[in-house]
Structures are given as structure tokens and as C-alpha cells.
Write a structure and sequence with these properties.
Blueprint (H helix, E strand, L loop, with lengths): L1 E5 L13 H17 L11 E5 L9
Parallel strand pairs: 1-2
């Protein structure tokens, strides 16, 4: 799971930050991990969680 956060959309949405270069990096890291531990590749999927934060004036818990 890749989590991306933005406080504004000035540079695009959070999900847009996961470009092809980043996807390749994640895929290559997964391939290395799977080959190192003798695991299968076919059952994997990757998810992106997109968080947009607007102007926060106060927070109460």
C-alpha cells in the first residue's frame, strides 16, 4: 500500500505522485522481496491511498 498526502492540489492529486517511475520502484522492490523469500508473484496487487488535507482551523478529539 502506498499512501500519498497533499495539502493542496497545486502539484496534482496525491495519486498522481505515484508515477511510472515510482510504480517501477515499488514493483522491483516487491520482486526482490518475493524472490528472496521464494514467494509467488501472481497473487499480488498494489493499492494507493490518497489523502487530501484542506485548511484545518482546529481539531477536537
Amino acid at each position: 500500500i502506498e499512501v500519498k498526502t497533499r495539502t493542496s492540489l497545486l502539484y496534482g492529486s496525491p495519486a498522481e505522485a505515484v508515477d511510472m517511475k515510482k510504480q517501477r520502484h515499488i514493483r522491483n522492490a516487491a520482486r526482490y522481496f518475493l524472490s528472496r523469500y521464494n514467494r509467488e508473484w501472481d497473487s499480488l496487487n498494489f493499492q494507493v491511498i490518497e489523502i487530501s488535507i484542506g485548511h484545518i482551523t482546529g481539531l477536537e478529539l
